[in-house]
């Protein structure tokens, strides 16, 4: 299993549009056995994606090429044993809730390539 987190800018995205995107992504993620969490503060998106390696990597590549995202920055990438969001598809969270998840990821995976420190810094 793969874990990826990233941040991107989504200028001009309304809260209603974001809600529609999340609903659609939740359905698509479940079909691909992908799960995760997403936060949007009106300008920046932060997302954690977990699932089968190839599916997660392919989704991340699609996100990087999606014109609704700019300045996509990979924050964490790690091989994991289990997903923290199994069966949810995509959980919508507040930035502070996602911050707490990032701290749990840091505790679970430690530092290095799998460090959640960039996400923690994003919400500090």
UniProtKB/TrEMBL annotation:
UniProt GO molecular function: blue light photoreceptor activity; FAD binding
SMART domains named in the record: BLUF (SM01034)
Name under which the protein is recorded: BLUF domain-containing protein
BLUF domain: residues covered: 1-91
InterPro entries documented for this protein: Acylphosphatase-like_dom_sf, BLUF_domain
């Amino acid at each position: 299993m793969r874990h990826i987190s990233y941040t991107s800018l989504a200028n001009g995205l309304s809260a209603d549009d974001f809600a529609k995107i999340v609903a659609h992504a939740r359905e698509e993620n479940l079909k691909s056995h992908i799960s995760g969490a997403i936060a949007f503060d009106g300008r920046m998106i932060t997302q954690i994606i977990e699932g089968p390696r190839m599916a997660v990597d392919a989704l991340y590549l699609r996100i990087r090429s999606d014109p609704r995202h700019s300045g996509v920055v990979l924050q964490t990438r790690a091989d994991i044993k289990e997903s923290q969001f199994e069966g949810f598809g995509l959980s919508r969270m507040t930035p502070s809730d996602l911050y707490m998840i990032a701290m749990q990821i840091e505790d679970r995976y430690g530092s290095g390539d799998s460090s959640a420190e960039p996400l923690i810094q994003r919400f500090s």
